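Appendix B, record 7
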Amino acid sequence: MTETLLPDDWLDRSRAAVSRTPLAPEARAQGRVTSLADGIARVAGLPEAPLGALLQFETGARGFAHSLGADAIDAVMLDDATPVEVGHRVTDTGDVLRVPVGEALLGRVVDPLGRPLDGGSAPEPEESWPVERPAPDIIDRALVSQPLETGVLVVDSLFALGRGQRELIVGDHATGKTALAVDAIINQKTSDVICVYVAIGQRSAAVERVVAAVREHGAPERCIFVVGGAAASPGLQWIAPFAGMTMAEYFRDRGQDALIVIDDLTRHAATHRELALLTREPPGREAYPGDIFYLHARLLERAAKLSEERGGGSLTALPIAQTDAGNLSAYIPTNLISITDGQIVFDTHLFSANQRPAVDVGLSVSRVGGKAQAPALRAVSGRVRLDYAQFQELEMFTRFGGLSNTRVKAQIARGERIRALLSQPRYSGLRMADQVALLAALADGALDRLSPDRVPALRDRLPGWLDETAAAALSELTLTDPLSDDLRKRLVTAVSALVDDLEGARASGTPVR
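Structure tokens (predicted):
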């Protein structure tokens, strides 16, 4: 028997020959459009296509599989469906819907697919990620331990937010919900947080106001604006929050901190209901399909604080929801309240009474952020909520009669100062040091001789006053160290001196600036 010996380079020459061999054409499944209406294409002949599969139509338009039937797929169109006709071929791309991610999107206004809406050139992303991504496992998460400062006194002191938290902003139409979220974005101009604003079904004018406010007062170079506006197709509106979450997760997974504002999930739920009814899914409570809870749960669960082994990044979510006549027990608000870690409730009556932000202190709560609140701020804000709640009850009872005694009069006067202190104009965020000084002065009685109508002037002048008269104290105040008695006394003394200056100017008739 003769043994055949192969040359030493036989394996290398064989690999080279294989690499020069042309690849066979890639096989892809194809189906046909059987019906088309209202942005929903019914496609037959793709039995292997999974849920969420990216489909390519003969005209070049794209869609994704929204629901799977026994003999057909209901595909939601992402592009103009006008050229698509019954009988056109549909190809399963073998991929799911993806969006671009990366730093190239910072400072840009894009649609949910990453296409520019600001008139600039198309961004060149580093990579693309699926819009549907699994939430981090429990073992990959860490405790929420760092504060996310919004600059809004009523939030930072009473309902503090932590990096990695999910806090619902809920209230009636036009009560200031978006304004609070935008103020939180603007306040990150002094932090390292990347911000993503997602607009769902919003009018173009409203989105333009948000973008203009961030560009004027914030740091737009660290923000991404994802717009699925009212004029966009239902498919784009539906994927908008998922696309924004994916874009934000890119920074979280790199060890950075990110904030996403979803404005708003009530409109997103309405879009999901519209698509469900068009695809003949059975309606449930308030005509919403039964999977609406799972839809928003799998979206918001993606916001989390990662462990150090995973990089230590965080993604904080501020979803917005709208109520009708303050009805928090409606289907979508109750769903979202049960999903999130707390809610900031806006009240129509407070808004009408010119209390801005119109936050209902009694109904609002933060179930996580208090543990992440700066120790110095936590030390001076403990009784504010209780005192303010007692004042609101006393104020209601005193409407039916006069003030009974001196103690009640003092409580009413103190409550009026608290209300004036918690009222804050837009785009006027306060530093943590300013908030600590104000609340310490309130607790120690340094504001008792200041009339409530002078509180706005105090708040406006305070940052510059502290920088000038208490710079050493400000340098000692940190996010992690507790508030010492000496430091507290120095801050209260500085605020008391400012109160004396304001009262002296009032007595002399000098206008306050």
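Remarks on this record: The two ends are 108 Å apart (CA to CA). Confidence is low (pLDDT under 50) at residues 1-6, 14-21.
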